[in-house]
C-alpha cells in the first residue's frame, strides 16, 4: 500500500488528471512536425473536478474522476478547454502502482482533438512523462492521428504536446 503522502499525491493526480503542454505566445502553437503533421503545444490547468470515490476510501480500482481543464497559451491566456474522464482500472498488488483508463476531449482553436489511453498514475505523480493515443475530430485536426506526450508539473498543471499526422 502506498504511503499516506504518496496516497495524497496520487489522489491529487487522480483528481487533477490534467493534461497540459508548454506553449508559444499568443495561442496554442501549431507547427508542422513533418510533412502533413501538426504539433500543438500548450499549458493545461485544472478548473473543476468531480471525484467519485469507490470503496475502499482513497485512490482505488473503480474510482472515477471527471475534470474540466483550461487550455492556456504561453501567456497563460485561456484559448480552449479539455473535458477529461479517468477511471482507475488496476492497482499492482506487488508495487501498489495505480493505472487509469483516461479519455479527453479538447476544444481548441481550429478544431477538436480526442485522447485516450492507459495512464500509470504512480509514474505520472513522480513526474514521469506519459504517452497516449490522440486523434483529430474536427477542423484542421480531423482525420489525423498521433500521440499526446503528458508531463505533470504539479497537482493543477501539466505540460504536453500533441502531434497528429
Task: Give the SSE map.
Layout: H1 4-16, E1 29-31, E2 38-52, E3 64-72, E4 78-91, E5 98-108, E6 111-120, H2 121-125, E7 130-139, E8 145-152, E9 157-164
Antiparallel strand pairs: 1-2, 2-3, 2-9, 3-4, 4-5, 5-6, 6-7, 7-8, 8-9
Overview of the structural elements:
The protein has 165 residues and is mainly beta. The protein has one domain (4-164): AOC barrel-like (Beta Barrel). 11% of the residues lie in helices and 53% in strands. The protein is built from two helices and nine strands, in the order αββββββαβββ. The chain has helices at residues 4-16, 121-125, and strands spanning 29-31, 38-52, 64-72, 78-91, 98-108, 111-120, 130-139, 145-152, 157-164. It has an eight-stranded antiparallel β-barrel with strand order 2-3-4-5-6-7-8-9. A hairpin with a 2-residue loop joins strand 5 and strand 6. The protein is globular and about 45 Å long. The protein starts with a helix and ends with a strand. The model is unreliable at 1-33 (pLDDT under 50).
Amino acid at each position: 500500500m502506498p504511503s499516506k503522502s504518496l496516497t495524497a499525491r496520487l489522489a491529487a493526480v487522480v483528481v487533477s488528471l490534467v493534461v497540459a503542454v508548454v506553449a508559444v505566445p499568443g495561442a496554442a502553437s501549431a507547427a508542422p512536425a513533418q510533412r502533413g503533421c501538426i504539433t500543438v503545444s500548450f499549458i493545461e490547468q485544472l478548473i473543476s473536478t468531480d471525484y467519485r470515490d469507490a470503496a475502499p476510501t482513497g485512490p482505488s480500482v473503480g474510482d472515477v474522476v471527471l475534470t474540466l481543464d483550461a487550455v492556456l497559451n504561453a501567456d497563460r491566456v485561456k484559448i480552449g478547454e479539455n473535458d477529461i474522464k479517468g477511471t482507475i482500472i488496476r492497482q499492482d498488488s506487488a508495487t501498489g502502482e495505480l493505472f487509469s483508463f483516461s479519455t479527453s476531449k479538447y476544444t481548441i482553436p481550429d478544431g477538436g482533438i480526442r485522447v485516450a489511453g492507459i495512464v500509470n498514475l504512480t509514474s505520472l505523480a513522480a513526474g514521469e512523462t506519459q504517452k497516449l493515443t490522440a486523434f483529430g475530430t474536427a477542423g484542421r485536426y480531423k482525420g489525423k492521428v498521433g500521440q499526446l506526450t503528458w508531463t505533470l508539473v504539479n497537482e493543477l498543471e501539466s505540460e504536453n504536446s500533441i502531434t497528429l499526422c
